[in-house]
Amino acid sequence: MKNTNILFTCAGRRNYLINYFKESLNGNGKVVAVDMQLSAPALVDADIARKVPSIYDSAYIPALKEVIKEENIDAVISLNDLELPILSKHRKELENLGARVIISNPDTIAIAFDKWRTFTFFKSIGIDTPKTYLTIQDALDAIQNSELHYPLIIKPRWGSASISIDIAENEEELMLAYKLQHLKVQKSILKNASSEDIEKSILIQEKIDGEEYGIDILNDLEGNHYNSFVRKKLAMRSGETDKAVSVIDDKFSEIAKIIAKNTKHVGNMDCDFFFKDDKVYYLEMNPRFGGGYPFSHEAGINTPAIYISWINGDIDIDKFNKFSAGLMFSKCDRMMPIKL
Description:
By secondary structure, this protein is α/β, with parallel strands linked by helices. Helix content is 33%, strand content 25%. Strands 14-13-10-11-12-15 form a six-stranded antiparallel beta sheet. Strands 3-2-1-4-5 form a five-stranded parallel beta sheet. It has a four-stranded antiparallel beta sheet with strand order 6-9-7-8, sandwiched between helices. Helix 6 (106-113) crosses helix 7 (115-124).
């Protein structure tokens, strides 16, 4: 196996991914991680850690280019929703340096990041999804016509990691939450993303009370579907799966194939769905590794090893898929020493 150097951008708290890739490389290459803060926990476990500017800083892409050249990077993997459109825009110039940027096409990224477009996308391919409204008047009209019922979800149209989600039980709470969401978005990390259409930056969505699932839909680096890996969520924490059990079910796999065929996304895509009354309701999709990936990994699918094989032109990957159902796992925090 030849040496393969992987660069993780916006590494943040994804220590598990850093370590999964290091284990799969087994000394045949290095994991480089960058973040705008050297105190980011994932940087501690990386072979090489570098500080870079904010993704919105004009110096960000030049800084990535410098890292790619100096560390002989073979592949770039982003771990942040907000960064994906930026990397996509600069993909060619980064790849001209010899590093493969493992990222989906711009349209798939835009559909996933804009939750209104996500809703319309699912509808267009025949996938059930919660009723969603772009304006508060549309939602109120639907309630008046008995097409929509409380409780409702109020959330940012452009969002990440369940940032600023509220539940309204009645009209008074709906009006208050909607107004508050507008104010909060303009003061949050979503400000830049939401500036595209600030007046329509909040969504009102039907609340589905069913079993909640996460799924990793894995395509190869050309966008061809490989397989999918499901987990039933048992507990959540800060917008990420905290406890889950692995699941294998053909009805879930078939829907995943439909989504993969239509997105042609590259690599892993993390999705959320509900199961209620024998119907599957897809909620969101994120074309990257998500916080639920460790549950898939520990249940037997070694996606980092698959990525490394694909990067090196090796398509013999079934040996890395030992995914089994009925395996339950729980996350926990650990302390990381940070060098000052």
